[in-house]
Design goal:
Largest sheet: 6 strands, mixed
Radius of gyration: 18 Å
Strand content: 15-25%
Length: 248
């Protein structure tokens, strides 16, 4: 899989200028890429363009050489809010996307159980959503996103509404799943620590230029530890880059 953005810009009618300007980026098969930057730098807009939820004003987005011109099961999105259906059980929520895709019922069941087991939620398969904690709900949402076997998983600050302990546990689980499944992931986050923990590369966005300020490769072995000297060096370097590009 290859995702390529060529000179991508986006302007909204009610904005005074470009929200994104001249984005050039390539994401390779199996990469875990994180995007960081101050509020208003265009992180979520970038994700929405790649998802096909918005169309670029200029430039083009190509997935395996084909232009992205709308939403597709090839590009599954997981947002900050879990967007689960409260009237469905845990396993029925996980199956939902597969049902829409017309996947046979037996395969739906097998795939749903596989990912619930991976999320350590197999014993909760028949629970109602209101019986779950916030962290468990996000794990159900992640299981649902993984079932479609998409080429690209797009995650927009999925852990930001959770407490620190829960978000730390979930990012560890996400890393384990990524290592097992070799999915390609684009992950939006405000947390530089989270980006260094998860990413192969970190994209730093600049609200002043509405573009990419820097792309930093994280050359650390996994699993990573937040108090390791090299980890803290990367964290400090990226924080400095983010602060250099604060809009004033």
């Amino acid at each position: 899989m290859s995702l390529v953005l060529k000179n991508v810009s986006k302007t909204f009618e009610d904005s005074q200028g470009d929200v994104l300007n001249g984005i050039n980026l390539e994401i390779r098969d199996g990469e875990f890429v994180c995007v960081v930057g101050q509020s208003g730098c265009g992180k979520s807009t970038l994700l929405n363009l790649i998802a096909g939820l918005e169309k670029p004003t200029d430039g083009e987005i190509l997935l395996d050489g084909r232009q992205v011109d709308g939403p597709s099961a090839e590009r599954v999105v997981m947002f900050q809010e879990h967007a689960l259906f409260p009237w469905l059980s845990v396993i029925e929520n996980v199956k939902f996307g597969m049902k829409l895709a017309g996947i046979p019922q037996k395969e739906q069941e097998e795939t749903a159980v596989k990912y619930l087991r991976m999320m350590q939620l197999e014993d909760c398969r028949d629970y109602a959503i209101h019986q779950l904690s916030g962290g468990m709900r996000q794990r159900v949402a992640l299981a649902r996103a993984l079932t479609l076997d998409s080429k690209l998983l797009l995650m927009d600050e999925p852990f930001s509404a959770l407490d620190k302990q829960t978000s730390n546990r979930l990012r560890g689980e996400l890393q384990d799943i990524w290592l097992k499944t070799n999915r390609t992931i684009l992950f939006i986050t405000h947390s530089v620590e989270e980006a260094v923990y998860l990413a192969d590369r970190v994209i730093v966005m600049s609200p002043a230029r509405n573009s990419i300020a820097d792309i930093i490769s994280i050359e650390l072995e996994r699993p990573r530890h937040v108090y390791d000297e090299k980890f803290m060096e990367y964290r400090h370097r990226i924080l400095e880059k983010v602060q250099e590009n604060v809009q004033v």
